[in-house]
Amino acid sequence: MTQITLSPADRKPVSATASLGTKAITLTFADNGLLALLLGDHDRNIVRLEQGLGVRMSCRGNRLAINGDAARVEAAQSAVNSLYRRLERGEPLSPSDVDAAVRMAEIDDPRLPLADLPAIRTRRGAVGPRSPGQATYMDLLAKHEMVFGIGPAGTGKTYLAVAQAVAMLTAGTVDRIILSRPAVEAGERLGFLPGDLKEKVDPYLRPLYDALGEMMPAEMMAKRMATGEIEVAPLAFMRGRTLKHAFVILDEAQNTTPVQMKMFLTRMGEGTRMVVAGDLSQVDLPSGARSGLRDALETLEGLPGIGVCRFDKRDVVRHPLVARIVDAYEQRASAEKDTRREARRQDGRQDGRLEGSGK
Fold first, then answer.
1. Which one in 29, 103, 245, 349 has a CA-CA gap of 20 to 30 Å to 36?
2. Other Cβ atoms closer than 10 A to 152
3. Cα–Cα distance measured from residue 332 to residue 270, given in angstroms and rounded to the nearest whole number
4. Distance CA 185, CA 183 (A)
């Protein structure tokens, strides 16, 4: 375990450092070997923590000093302790784990330390949250019968839903998993693609297969698919069915129409959980067509039994560049919206001047 020793600056009742809202602490570690893993090659993990949390860190012997704004220091302490406990459990530490600890340290949650946050247990191990949004999403998946996960790519909407589905199937809470998504890109051209129906639609379902493959061994996945315990199918295959004691996931839901979405949601039967995941910024429907996901949110949000989790760029857990790409597109969309609003305002003023002049 880590023993925390306050620096002399913190022991002073009043000091210039304290008055400015800064803080300095020293963490003492019992295992130098684990501390070396925590620091990373050439201190790369510490550098990531410094950059992500806005603090200064220095290590001497088995002690790690953290200096900076008081709130930032506390967040850094939480991140360091969570990473050290991970190493104590014998789990590896990757750069993505460090980034996750930075994101999770931002949570103002009374359940901290992080070990008390939700986790999904699968045969491949425990799947824990890597961002504040993911912690909220996992809570909703555990407590609600129907959950909407809305947000940009890389936030774990589908991955965590599949993890929850596999965990519930393994525990016997549900009898089967049904994964679906619309094949919008194929459209009316589906019949012109080579191969049988499975070969035509498989490319559009591949992300779901990939998520499943990370949750269970390939042979187990193949066996459960052969017995019907796991079914991966296009959205059109849902029509006319009543799904009981199943965990049903609709991916890329932004590409459904309102009619398709209503059809899907009303397939829900006894003992069934449903998750609807999508990104409203990536709608591939024909121009002018209304997204069934947007329509469902406007109609159903707030109903008892339905949970809605909205992710943002801070929840992106892929390569750090993905978060910057998402942010850049959001900024451009916001700027274009402001430009259109200003253009309409100018047009209104111009029309008013014309009417006032009698022309």
1. 103
2. 23
3. 45
4. 6
